Amino acid sequence: MVTIRAGRVLLDGAFTGPAQLAVEGGRIASVTVGEALAGAPAADVDLGAATLTPGLMDLQINGSFGADFADATPEQWTRVLGGLAARGVTAVQPTIITAPLAQLGGAFARVRQARDENAGGPAARVLGAHLEGPFISPARKGTHRPDWMVEPSPEHLDVLLAHPATREVLTTLTLAPELPHALDATRRLVAEGVVVAVGHSDATAAQVHAAADAGATMTTHVFNAQRPLGHREPGVPGAVLTDERFYVGTIVDGQHLDPSVVRLVYTAAAGRAIAVTDAIVTAGLPNHTWLQFGGRPVANDDTGLGRREDGTITGAGIVLDEGVRRMVASGLDAATVLASCTEVAARSLGRADLGRLAVGAHADLVAWDSSWHPVRVWVGGSEIAASVGTDAVSGWTTSAGASTIRA
Predict the structure, then answer these.
(1) Is 209 annotated as a binding residue?
(2) CATH (one of 3.40.430.10, 3.30.70.270, 3.20.20.140, 3.40.50.300) for 55-348
(3) Which of 179, 282, 333, 353 has the most CB atoms at less than 10 Å from its CB?
(4) Statement: residue 76 has pLDDT above 50
(5) Are 96 and 130 in contact (CB under 8 A)?
(6) 225 a known binding residue?
(7) What's the CATH code, domain 2-53+357-384?
(8) Side-chain-side CA neighbours of residue 292 (13 Å)
(9) Each residue of 303-340: pLDDT tens digit?
(10) Of 208, 175, 207, nearest in space to 194 by CA
(11) Which active-site residues does the annotation give?
């Protein structure tokens, strides 16, 4: 057993402390807070004034550090999962974007292989796979290729689910609920244990609520690639922000959404907003490094935002710890931001064993300094070397003109 003491910890969405955790067998064996610590023996690890939280969970991440999860090699998987863990991201839901149906089984097989080969190592946990497409709207395609999009018909679902790896690792699927067969597909997928997310959708609010009736519980990058919020037609954002059946995925790079809009999401969907990056292959690399993503070139611009050659936004070029720093720098409450990518993220997947400083939960932990950089990281109770972020974000500032945020 190892004991860890910190001046402040994140418990149930709020900071408290001091506190001490006991870790045994890779899980949290006890949590002692405040006055109950009086007379307790010295901890094996004393973090001083540092803040201790559960490890970050990124539920929408397409890749990082030069690896695209859709076709990454085993060596690339090891590099990216290790790099993410060193930045405090201790669990990920690799996202595979729209591709021909026949190719998706192979992508999921590689996710399964990476999960198994890196389990127990100095690497982020692979929670399962998030399939973003191909059952999405060409009208809200974003960076996805419309020629690869199909309707979620029973026949297409049969093809998708035929591969054994798909049934084993598919945890979340994004679809547009206004498409033909979408509600029946939602019911079938939910019955299979898959979380259905509304995204890349031109749905009306009524169609979004119908998706919730069918079992949808997640939103993919609210406000991005979806019918916008209107004062008479609430669209996708208005529906998911007011329908408490939905968790609300929210990109926190400060560019896909202005921080003031993130604040709106966190206020309207309190306890349901989930911070994600939507990071792509270029995340963590120098700007203007051109790579392939989704069948076409992409690179980070001067602010670290992934763009196509024509300027279309493709995804974030940051790691989630940088998203935390940007949101806190913009004035958002740090405990709320951190809870959104730990406790709330785990709850959205029904994972009571992750994202919490609670007895029985996996000891995936991050100690943060006063500037919100991870200084120590544990995965399953085993410490790994933390790495200070090196995102090329020198061009990013808050909408209020705050000082540049540097990783």
Answers:
(1) no
(2) 3.20.20.140
(3) 282
(4) yes
(5) yes
(6) yes
(7) 2.30.40.10
(8) 6
(9) 889 999 999 888 899 999 999 999 999 999 999 999 99
(10) 175
(11) 278
